[in-house]
Design a protein that fits this description.
Elements (H helix, E strand, L loop, with lengths): L3 H8 L7 H13 L6 E4 L6 H9 L5 E6 L2 H8 L2 H4 L4 E5 L7 H4 L9 E6 L5 H7 L15 H5 L7 H13 L4 E8 H13 L6 E7 L1 H5 L5 E8 L8 E4 L7 E7 L2 E3 L2 H6 L13 E2 L6 H4 E5 L2 E4 L4 E2 L6 E5 L1 H5 L8 E4 L12 H4 L1 H9 L1 H5 L25 E6 L8 E3 L8 E2 L3 E6 L2 H11 L2 H10 L10 H4 L4 H9 L3
Parallel strand pairs: 1-2, 1-4, 2-3, 4-5, 6-8, 15-19
Antiparallel strand pairs: 5-7, 6-7, 8-9, 9-10, 11-20, 12-13, 12-16, 13-14, 15-16, 17-18, 17-20
Helix pairs in contact: 2-3, 9-10
């Protein structure tokens, strides 16, 4: 059970920025020639950013802090440096309810605005788990379609919503935004600016040691954006730290997000999603306790610890994503029940083909009926996803989407049966072993690795995606390699 203080800290994504870090960030902003007239920190906490910005930006005429937590406001009132500075105005307020645009109204059109700080580091789904209510009114603000919402894309970081709202308010102003956030959130925000054709003069991220400053195991950064009334510069310079001099640039090519535009441009002839090979994802069943088994001696044991007696007709050797990533593909003792040969196939055929298997499914049907994913609700009984003729091909090249490395594995049949994968794995299927080896040679070549690396954002939860794998034109790659010899 979550303790009350811990729950409140989680609900508000409460990572107070140390004064040391706030001062370093303000110093970086000075290096970037940021000279604001009005400074706003919409969630100011105990006021460390307020204090650092008041010291750093002497030219600022007004510094506004807003905070929902009364205890933090009391802490600010005890800070003589803040209470004695006549420029500083601190008030209680809920970001989700007050009008940020009212705080950044300027007397002169030439006034420059800086919005800075550190929004909550928590997602809306995490709020749901702890019963938190520190959320904006629920709307589909990213306009995800039904399937994306079902499969998880509707989950978002609360800071993402808050950053977007801040950026919307800063449009048509001479303004800056400097916010600490997860690196993945910074990229989503820049993607949003691009997708909505908003104004952006310049953006950059500076990696922050989140473990050092917040004791948080997460990739975090300072997101810096400069806005004006007409620029639309949709790129972002990525620095490894606040002190780093070198960077690489993320951006867009044909509306495709690119992690390293310089590297991509050198290999852009290899990019053609229409000519790429068709990478598939592994089987999704959402019920490992019933559908997956380990072979112990000559017996099959399910995830419930039951020794089961079923035919091997629908059982196939299973390799998980972690096995692919760790190159554990030779010795297999895990199996999965494959109930369909193609998406949407009725499963009643099992009743005659493998009656023991059918009986097993019937007796464990309560587990399958209660699967959480909505994609199973209107599908065939005992349905699975990620299955087709490619599932049963004798040769496959596989890679795990969750790991931060480009390691491709070639696997063949085991005991006469095709090996299948879980849904964290992407794979190409082949009927011919020699062709599979030829493609593996292409995929492991330096140009292929460099091409994929230019597109993959390694800090993402699932950095390797089928859309990226599918974008490599293998024919063009083969021609490029052939010209070197």
């Amino acid at each position: 059970m979550i303790q009350v203080t811990s729950k409140v800290k989680m609900e508000y994504g409460d990572f107070q920025t140390p004064l040391e870090l706030a001062e370093k960030i303000c110093h970086k902003l000075l290096e970037l020639n940021v000279s604001p007239d009005i400074i706003v920190e919409p969630t100011c906490g105990i006021g460390n950013f307020i204090q650092a910005s008041a010291h750093s930006f002497q030219v600022a005429s007004k510094i506004i802090g807003v905070e929902i937590n009364k205890t933090y406001l009391q802490e600010i009132q005890k800070n003589n440096q803040l209470t004695q500075d006549q420029r500083i105005q601190v008030q209680q307020g809920d970001f989700f309810k007050f009008d940020l645009s009212s705080l950044i109204k300027t007397k002169k059109r030439s006034d420059k605005i800086l919005v800075l700080g550190n929004f909550p580091w928590i997602t809306n789904s995490q709020q749901g788990i702890i019963g938190g209510e520190n959320l904006p009114q629920k709307t589909n603000f990213q306009n995800h379609n039904g399937l994306d919402a079902i499969t998880g894309k509707s989950n978002f970081d609360v800071s993402e919503w808050m950053l977007i709202k801040s950026i919307q308010c800063l449009q048509k102003h001479e303004a800056y935004l400097a916010m600490l956030c997860k690196t993945s959130v910074s990229r989503k925000v820049v993607n949003y600016i691009h997708s909505k054709n908003l104004n952006l003069a310049y953006s950059a991220t500076y990696r922050i040691n989140a473990k050092k400053y917040f004791d948080a195991a997460v990739d975090a950064c300072l997101l810096f954006c400069k806005f004006d009334s007409n620029s639309q510069n949709y790129f972002c310079d990525v620095f490894s730290s606040l002190d780093a001099d070198t960077h690489y640039r993320t951006g867009y090519r044909n509306n495709i997000p690119v992690r390293d535009t310089s590297s991509f441009d050198k290999l852009k002839d290899l990019h053609n999603p229409k000519m790429g090979a068709k990478w598939r994802s592994g089987i999704k069943h959402d019920c490992s306790k019933v559908m997956e088994f380990r072979k112990v001696d000559d017996a099959f044991v399910n995830g419930l610890g039951e020794v089961i007696d079923i035919e091997e007709t629908c059982l196939f050797p299973l390799i998980k994503g972690s096995d692919v990533a760790q190159n554990r593909t030779k010795s297999i003792n895990r199996y999965v029940l494959v109930t369909q040969r193609f998406i949407g196939e009725p499963t009643e055929y099992i009743q005659n083909l493998a009656p023991k298997t059918w009986n097993y499914l019937e007796t464990h049907s309560s587990y399958l009926v209660n699967r959480k994913s909505k994609i199973h609700k209107k599908s065939s009984r005992f349905s699975i996803f990620g299955v087709g003729s490619y599932t049963f091909a004798p040769w496959k090249i596989a890679i795990c989407g969750l790991y931060k490395k480009l390691d491709f594995r070639l696997v063949g049949k085991m005991n006469g049966k095709a090996i299948v994968f879980d849904d964290t794995v992407y794979f190409l299927s082949f009927k011919n072993e020699q062709v599979a080896y030829q493609i593996l040679t292409l995929l492991t070549s330096a140009p292929a690795i460099d091409f994929y690396s230019s597109l993959i954002f390694w800090d993402e939860k699932r950095p390797i995606k089928s859309s990226i794998l599918n974008s490599l034109n293998l024919s063009a790659l083969a021609e490029r390699l052939a010209t070197k010899f």
